């Protein structure tokens, strides 16, 4: 991770707790975001036809059914944050892919009364040379 990204993450942080460092990929080669404080729930983020799909996975990376879980997303810029619309389709959350390079801040709750967990995604679509994947779902180790 480049230092300017890290600095932006720190500034953009809604919660003072930073997510784990490093990128993990899920069973569908999507980007994994942590949605719990104990690795018990993850989101796998994939992209197709201009849409971002978000599937919930349990501790063993097995699919989790949608029930009372709530997910919100904020995009835009630091100066002009923009609430993104999230729909559900079956057990999947769906939102329109943000403009390339934008940060998306997700707020997740297991139910309306739960404490929100914050997860961040830098939608960096630049191609990674070694793995041929966009940077946002590249799991190459950076020095
Ligand atoms: Zn890569």
What is shown here, in short?
With 143 residues, the protein is mainly beta. The protein is 7% helix and 38% strand. The chain has a six-stranded antiparallel sheet, with no helix packed on it.
What this model shows, in words?
- By secondary structure, the protein is mainly beta.
- The protein has one domain (3-15, 24-137): Immunoglobulin-like, CATH 2.60.40.
- It has one helix spanning 3-12; strands at 24-25, 31-34, 41-48, 51-58, 70-76, 81-84, 87-89, 92-96, 103-109, 117-122.
- A 6-stranded antiparallel β-sheet has the order 1-2-3-4-8-7, with no helix packed on it. Strands 6-5-9-10 form a 4-stranded antiparallel β-sheet, with no helix packed on it.
- It is globular.
- The chain binds zinc ion.
- Residues 128, 130-131, 133, 138, 140 line the site of zinc ion.
